[in-house]
Structures are given as structure tokens and as C-alpha cells.
Write a structure and sequence with these properties.
Structural class: mainly alpha
Strand content: 5-15%
Order of helices and strands: HHHHHHHEHEHEHEHEHEEH
Helix content: 40-55%
Distance between the termini: 31 Å
Largest sheet: 3 strands, antiparallel
Radius of gyration: 31 Å
Strand order of the largest sheet: 5-6-7
Number of helices: 13
Length: 370
């Protein structure tokens, strides 16, 4: 209500400033601004649209778009001598209130949807995955006879609890296990995971809660110290790379600990990569050099990367071998930042005669579920 009132007042001030100062505004943008800026180039058309928006009450998306381009903050005057017209300043003030109003509407919308969904679920007797978690957490943490009975029965039924991929556990899930198995020494609670792999921050996965829990309970930590899945040169390269930094993961509780390779093990025999008779560097960072006077555009950078990748793949297919056999195209994977880049790389590789498959070009946010 507060921001709506501010918005209406701001609009009234905008109407008044336009009615009283449109000539001043037109004169300013035609004489004091560079001819290339939008207000100067389209002042006649903009005035027509604003007359409909501000004096005839025909508020429209086009009118709002025009208004956005008439704000004082985007002006580039040719001279600082002449004062900026009141209308342009009011347009700036109104635009700020309009952004506040947009945020308030979104907050109200979220609240409305939450209430609507809760009502819909109650009427149909439906529970979501989050409901199951929150109700379980409420039950095991409740103070009273019911909570005591539930905690005792579950505690008696299980001697130990093991949470795999614990770095992706959200606080509600973790609270359930901590309440049941983490408060008394008569139970074992195992947390299996790698904090560096946490990918569910958006869902509320909270690494700090686990670090704090480990400190308070004086938990014993065990780490796997040998990598059996990766060839020895790559393990050593990763060790060397990350050991250069004092805080490679930007967190006091996330230090880098070197792991040992399984020297001359089955992986080294089956996955050893060679170029001819040579063992090339297992981990390479490629740097782009640019000779132009101006820096490269994003498009030019992406084109150069695609060219470099295709050239390198052609070379690897010619000279590379894995475990004694020639490198095949299905040995190679290209990781990209977004799905649109995957399609661009795929098309370019086809042009270069490289067989390529896009694993998926579907965005999570374009699915029916999202």
C-alpha cells in the first residue's frame, strides 16, 4: 500500500511536470543533447506517445518504454550550462518508485501463491516432498510425550545413520538426523561427502551448518587418500595446480589435501594417454593472444575458441592414443557454459567434419515441471 501510494503520487507529479514543461523539455533535448541519443532523435514521436500516456490517460507499455528513455540520468548534454528540465528529473524519480513497486508486487505475488498452494493442498489432502520433510522435522523435534516416544522408538530401532552426499543435504533434512542420531553418544552418525561438490545451494544446502556441527561434536574426519580412477600424471598435475594456492576453495574449512595416485595400477594401464611415443602434459590451460588495437569482442573470442578446439581435436585424432589404441571421437567431451553454446559448437564441428552429439539442449527452466 505504501509503495502504491508513492507510485500514484509520482505519476501525478510526472503529469504536472509534463503539462507545465513539455516545451522546456523539447527545447532542451533538441538543443542541449547530442543528436545521436534517443530523446533527440525521436522527440516528436515520444511527445505524441507521452501526450496520450500523461494527458489522455492511455497508459501503455510503449508509453512506459518512452518514459524510460526520457530520464535525466541517461542524458548526455553537450553543455553543462543549462539546467536539466524538471520533467526529466521527475521521470527519474518516478522510475525508481516504479522499480520499488515491481519488487513489492513480486513479493505480494509470492505470498499469494504460497497461501493459494497451501489451501489447494489442504482441500485435496496432498503433501509435497517439502511437506514430508518439514512435518517429520516438527515431529522429531517436538517437546512433549509424542516427540519423546518417536525419538525413543527410532533411536531404539537404529544403531547408526549414514547420510551419503551429505554436502547436498538441506538444513531440514540434517536437523532430522542430528536430532535422532547426533545428540547422544549411543548412536553412530556418518556423513559421507565432499563439500567441494556441493551443487544444491539453491535448495538451501548449508555447508556452514555441517562445519559447525563437526566442530561442536568434535567429529572425527577420515579422507580417501588414493585416487584409483584417474591416471597418475593427471593426479599429480591437479595436486601441483591446487597446491599453489593458500585458499583454493575460498573457505577456512575447505583446504586442499593432495591425494596419491595408484601408480602403475589398472587405470594407468587402461587409460594412459600418449601422443605418438610421448607423454604430453595431462592438464593444459590455453591462453588466447590478440594482436588487434581494440580488445576482441565476445563473438570473436567464441569463434577463436571453437577454431582452436576443432584444430586440437583433429590433431588428437591423428596422433593420440589411450591405453594403446587410437583416440576415438567418443573419447572426447566438450563442456560449455550454456546450452546455446553447445548448439553453436555442434554446428561448427559438423562444418569442420567432426562427428558430434549434443547431450542435451534443453534448459532445466524450460521444462514443464519448472
Amino acid at each position: 500500500d505504501l509503495v502504491r501510494t508513492k507510485l500514484l503520487k509520482g505519476f501525478d507529479a510526472l503529469v504536472e511536470a509534463w503539462n507545465e514543461g513539455r516545451e522546456e523539455y523539447v527545447d532542451y533535448v533538441t538543443t542541449c543533447l547530442k543528436k545521436t541519443v534517443k530523446p533527440s532523435k525521436h522527440v516528436v514521436k515520444h511527445s505524441e506517445i507521452l501526450n496520450k500516456t500523461l494527458t489522455q490517460g492511455e497508459v501503455s507499455p510503449a508509453g512506459m518504454k518512452v518514459l524510460e528513455g526520457m530520464r535525466a540520468s541517461i542524458f548526455k548534454p553537450t553543455s553543462e550550462d543549462k539546467s536539466i528540465p524538471r520533467f526529466a528529473l521527475e521521470a527519474d524519480a518516478f522510475w525508481e518508485v516504479l522499480k520499488q513497486f515491481g519488487r513489492a508486487v513480486r513479493v505480494d505475488c509470492v505470498r499469494y501463491l504460497e497461501e493459494k498452494i497451501e489451501k489447494w493442498k489442504r482441500e485435496r489432502g496432498v503433501l509435497s516432498f517439502d511437506d514430508l520433510l518439514s512435518q517429520t522435522a516438527d515431529a522429531v523435534t517436538s517437546q512433549g510425550a509424542g516427540g519423546d516416544t518417536l525419538r525413543k522408538s527410532l533411536g531404539d530401532a537404529f544403531d547408526a545413520a549414514l547420510i551419503d552426499e551429505f554436502q547436498d543435504t538441506d538444513p531440514v533434512q540434517f536437523e532430522i538426523f542430528r536430532e535422532l542420531f547426533g545428540k547422544k553418544e549411543e548412536h553412530w552418525l556418518y556423513l559421507i561427502g565432499d563439500p567441494k561438490q556441493s551443487i544444491y545451494r539453491f535448495r538451501g544446502a548449508d555447508l556452514e551448518a555441517y562445519f559447525d556441527f563437526a566442530r561442536k561434536t568434535k567429529a572425527v574426519k577420515y579422507s580417501l587418500d588414493t585416487n584409483f580412477r584417474t591416471v597418475t600424471p593427471l593426479v599429480r598435475a591437479v595436486n601441483a595446480f591446487f597446491s599453489k594456492s593458500k585458499s583454493p576453495f575460498l573457505h577456512d574449512d575447505l583446504s586442499f589435501e593432495e591425494v596419491k595416485p595408484n601408480l602403475k595400477g589398472s587405470t594407468d594401464k587402461e587409460k594412459a594417454f600418449k601422443e605418438g611415443d610421448n607423454l604430453p602434459p595431462p592438464f593444459v590451460i590455453r591462453e588466447m593472444e590478440w594482436a588487434g588495437e581494440k580488445g576482441p569482442t565476445k563473438t570473436e573470442i567464441q569463434e577463436a575458441i571453437r577454431l582452436d578446439m576443432a584444430n586440437e581435436i583433429h590433431r588428437l585424432l591423428e596422433v593420440g592414443s589411450i591405453g594403446g589404441r587410437k583416440v576415438r571421437t567418443n573419447d572426447l567431451a566438450i563442456l560449455v557454459r550454456g546450452n546455446f553454446e553447445a548448439t553453436e559448437v555442434w554446428n561448427y564441428f559438423r562444418e569442420r567434419g567432426l562427428p558430434a552429439v549434443v547431450f542435451t539442449d534443453v534448459s532445466l527452466f524450460d521444462t514443464d515441471e519448472a
